[in-house]
Amino acid sequence: MANYSGYPAPNYAPSAPPMPDSYSAGRPPTEGYAHPPPPRSYSHPYPSPWASGAGGAGGSYFPPGTPPEVIRSFQAVDRDQSGFIEESELQAALSSAYHKFSIRTVRLLMFLFKNPSNPSKMGPVEFAALWGCLGQWQAIFYRFDRDRSGKIDSVELKDALISLGYAVPPSVIQVLISNYTDVYGRGALNFDNFVECGMIVKGLTEKFKERDTRYTGSATFSYDDFLLMIIPFIVP
């Protein structure tokens, strides 16, 4: 089995790359699909890095500097010690550390952080990248959950996305929120809903920018390309 310690980690952390000055000049934040965020750094939610070569069976290794908590969480759910975990195992690992993740969110994370040689499973490199990414999303969640309700409402979601560089129109915010309306008709996002929404917005924005190379806010897609871009994010 290959050693994936050199495989580049997927970039689904919440921080957004800066846009060219010409893109945002003279535009209010609600126009276009992105607005450059102010510089910000996020503290890592784990202890100091621990140089590691530990991994599962078959030579699958964690990247150097992976915190021991991450390695232990992976090994605890990798029951067959194969060095790879499936979606149910990922759900167990995340739910024990962060929040009870829904299987829908877990499937999206499996898609976004899939192993290049074994797309139906996740290896140590992808797991470590996902864990650190979730720590950053958690910091954003806590920052914008201003009433400490444990949920993000539509105003808080809009502000959180703008802070990350994504000026999502109010109509789209309402569509996102409406997917998580409770039995009382109140729409709000808990942590895993917030991660799901944030990664969908970020992922689709990055896909859109591949076609909108001049940052005009417009792009041309064929029908096939449009479906191939959208469906993996909405049907994980």
Automatic annotation (TrEMBL):
InterPro entries: CML48/49/50, EF-hand-dom_pair, EF_Hand_1_Ca_BS, EF_hand_dom
Region (Disordered): 1-47
GO-annotated molecular function: calcium ion binding
One Pfam family recorded for the sequence: EF-hand_5
Keyword Calcium: yes
Organism superkingdom: Eukaryota
Residue intervals of the EF-hand domain: 65-100, 132-167
SUPFAM superfamilies, per database record: EF-hand (SSF47473)
Transmembrane segments: none
CDD domains: EFh_PEF_Group_I
Glycoprotein in keyword set: no
Compositional bias ranges of the Low complexity kind: 1-14
Keywords: Calcium
PANTHER family: CALCIUM-BINDING PROTEIN CML48-RELATED
Name this polypeptide is given: (wild Malaysian banana) hypothetical protein
